[in-house]
UniProtKB/TrEMBL annotation:
It comes from Odoribacter laneus YIT 12061. One of its GO terms (molecular function) is bis(5'-nucleosyl)-tetraphosphatase (asymmetrical) activity. This is Glycine--tRNA ligase. Homodimer. CDD domains: GlyRS-like_core, GlyRS_anticodon. The gene is glyQS.
Length: 517
């Protein structure tokens, strides 16, 4: 099945099973805005908890804050967002659709990767067990030609972006015959810059209003609170400040479901270090963050680093952690060495000293910053994409299949479903006793509608790792049948052991302990 078709099924699955709904759905929705349903909000909260505790609980020198969405407008002047927070946009005159010029080129670059993978798969089928993939990639003339074209295109795009040369950016699109996905034509307008910030007014009277912005990132709320946190927390360099919060960008080219939205949530940590040590810390956080992702068990081969070809004006190093979505490798997290740009700018515009006195050096300086920034919504989509499976269970000529979300048990919205085999003979009452026993420690769901087979399938689709079935024997031996989602294996367990089993299998602490190793 084509990856595009899988992604469409994934989007439909999210709506059908209470994960993600189009916002304002009864009014036909609002472009690039989504609501999280009853299962989606649980998964989202578990993702945030995994990030927060891995940052704040596991690091004695990192603390958290929650800054306001509305901020003094001069903050965005100091940060450069008012003057430089732009995307290069281009319109197709035939379809009337608008695109980001750099994204059009990146998608074209991705086609070379797709061609390479197809060539590799063909060779694998042709040569079988004798196939040496590494040697094939290094020596096959067709693959080497694709790589050369891809790198040449990537370099020319990076050069145009770094020079802010919009004419050159358009010429790359024309020269490579990049067409509109809707019209199929290359009838393009000129490329121009578009500022992404939402603005509004604050004030009670028309004459007394002032223009302010919805924050386009959460980082600046950390920087303007640097001194407050450092002094009240008696923090010593190196130390970090973490934050989870909403951000807003007027994305003209919002697409790919919740991958790029106008209202989204970020998990960011700014790590303040002594100047001259920033690249060493950048390397450490690069490794730490990749380990955090890979511990979820979705396969190390599905992650990669992508070093930035165009560095922001304030950065001296930057890389993205990318995951292989159904629509290709895309960024889920960025790690940036921001130098002392942010604190220096706010020191300049506010007139307040934002410096740290280093007792070891006996001098004051503006700290350098390493940033880790991850989109909650992208992380959500990455986990759902990795967990979504369609399995053929046909056996002995009998057709059967299931759709299952193989979510990490620690992140799954519902940890356990309790099911009476039938709705009589005291089984529902016994099942409710088990619910009352476990609901204070685990998010449990009671399910008695439909046959036991249909209930199992429903919980598979939700991603529930364990199903507990109460049958007539339970009333005699005080034991239940526990079904494991991924293997569908069943075993008989005393009710008294349920808490310990669920605690071991679903405890977030088990993931956190692996990070600390």
């Amino acid at each position: 099945m084509a990856q595009e078709d899988i992604f469409k099924k994934l989007v439909a699955h999210c709506k059908e099973y209470g994960y993600v709904f189009p916002s304002s759905d009864i009014y036909d929705g609002l472009g690039a805005v989504y609501d999280y349903g009853q299962n989606g909000v649980e998964l989202k909260n578990n993702i945030k908890k995994y990030w927060w505790e891995s940052m704040v609980r596991l690091h004695e020198n990192i603390v958290g804050i929650d800054s306001a969405i509305f901020m003094h407008p001069t903050i965005w002047k100091a940060s450069g967002h008012v003057d430089a927070f732009n995307d290069p946009l281009i319109d197709n005159k035939d379809s009337k659709k608008r695109y980001r010029a750099d994204v059009l080129i990146e998608d074209h670059i991705a086609k070379y990767d797709e061609k390479i993978e197809k060539d590799v798969e063909k060779a694998r089928k042709r040569f079988g067990d004798k196939f040496d993939e590494t040697l094939f990639r290094q020596t096959n003339p067709q693959i080497l030609a694709h790589l050369e074209k891809r790198e040449a295109l990537r370099e020319s795009m990076a050069k145009a972006l770094n020079a802010n040369d919009l004419t050159a950016l358009r010429q790359i699109i024309i020269d490579n015959n990049i067409v509109c996905p809707i019209s199929g034509t290359a009838n393009w307008t000129e490329v121009r810059q578009f500022n992404l910030m939402f603005s509004t007014e604050m004030g009670s009277t028309a004459e007394g209003t002032s223009k302010i912005y919805l924050r386009p990132e959460t980082a600046q709320g950390i920087f303007v609170n640097f001194l407050n946190v450092q002094k009240t927390g008696r923090m010593k360099i190196p130390f970090g400040i973490a934050q989870i919060g909403k951000a807003f960008r007027n994305e003209i080219v919002a697409r790919q479901f919740i991958f790029r939205m106008r209202e989204f949530e970020q998990m960011e940590m700014q790590f303040f270090v002594r100047p001259g040590t920033e690249l060493e810390w950048f390397k450490k956080w690069r490794e730490t963050r990749m380990k955090w992702h890979q511990l979820l068990g979705f396969g190390a081969q599905n992650y990669r680093f992508h070093d930035h070809e165009k560095l922001a004006h304030y950065a001296n190093a930057a890389t993205d952690i990318e995951y292989k979505f159904p629509f290709g490798f895309k960024e889920v997290e960025g790690i940036h060495s921001r130098t002392d740009f942010d604190l220096s700018q706010h020191q300049k515009y506010s007139g307040k000293k934002l410096q740290y006195f280093d007792t070891e050096l006996n001098e004051s300086y503006v700290p350098y910053v390493i940033e880790t920034s991850i989109g909650v919504d992208r992380m959500f989509l990455q986990i759902i994409s990795a967990a979504y499976c369609e399995e053929d269970l046909s056996k002995d000529g009998k057709q059967d299949s299931r759709v299952v979300l193989k979510l990490p048990a620690a992140l799954a919205p519902v940890k356990m479903a309790v099911m009476p085999l039938v709705k009589k003979d005291g089984l529902p009452e016994k099942a409710q006793e088990i619910m009352d026993l476990l609901k204070y420690d685990f998010n449990c769901q009671y399910d008695e509608k439909d046959s036991i087979g249909k209930r199992y399938r429903r919980q598979d689709a939700i991603g529930t790792p364990f199903c507990i079935t109460v049958d007539h024997q339970t009333l005699q031996d005080n034991a239940v049948t526990i079904r494991h989602r991924d293997t569908m294996e069943q075993e008989r367990i005393p009710i008294a052991q349920l808490y310990d089993i669920l605690k071991e299998k679903t405890d977030l602490g088990n993931l956190l302990r692996q990070i600390g190793k």
